[in-house]
Amino acid sequence: MELALFTQQGLYFLVKYIHFLAGITWIGMLYYFNFVQGPFFNETDAETKKNATQKLVPRALWWFRWGAMFTFLSGIAMIALALSTGIPHNSQWVVVILVGAIFGTIMWANVWFVIWPNQKVVIAKAKGETTVDPAPNANRAFVASRTNTLLSIPMLFAMGAARNLPIAYSPNKLGMFLGLIGLIALIVEVNALVADQNGPSVKPIKSVKAVITSGSVFALVTYLLMEVLLTA
Predict the structure, then answer these.
(1) What is the pLDDT of residues 37-52, one digit of tens each?
(2) pTM of the prediction?
(3) Over the range 63-78, which residues count as b (16 or more CB within 10 Å of their CB) and which as e?
């Protein structure tokens, strides 16, 4: 008897399962940082914040960045396995999952190349290992983290919509759709890399309420672009 898990479809399921587990870990930690830890740090005393930065934050960031890595790698593997079965490259699943992959890849890059390097400076300062002022690093990590929270909402929408949203799909304006999505994502990411957390371009994502609202609007825009440009 052939075991289902050792078939090609079983391998795809296993990779998808890993993707789910890693993704829950990653996004769960992202929401913890933005919705729980950040507001707590803003309200607590300096000594408590320092102790948490020394002992709690490094542990949380370990799960955060490796959750991001395994989500990213398993996502690539999942798409590659699906394409290897002959699924058309311009099908609804491939196109819409690519939107989620674009957002997810930006988020992964922010974790490893923006948030983590800057948070290491903040942690080192709390531990007394450096005399460098960590304020610029904390600023950059904050904006990138809020940007990831913003992107996570349309990313999850696209991942769910790829197979489960019954639009009257047509690939006629596929290039325009992906071009607009890419342009919006680029603008959002440039802002993450250069904006100050007190600047006007960060205001739509600065508070918890604001970033949830903005992310929901972004998901709605993604859906409307799908209906306008990906339907017959």
Answers:
(1) 999 999 999 999 999 9
(2) 0.95
(3) ebbebbebbbebbebb
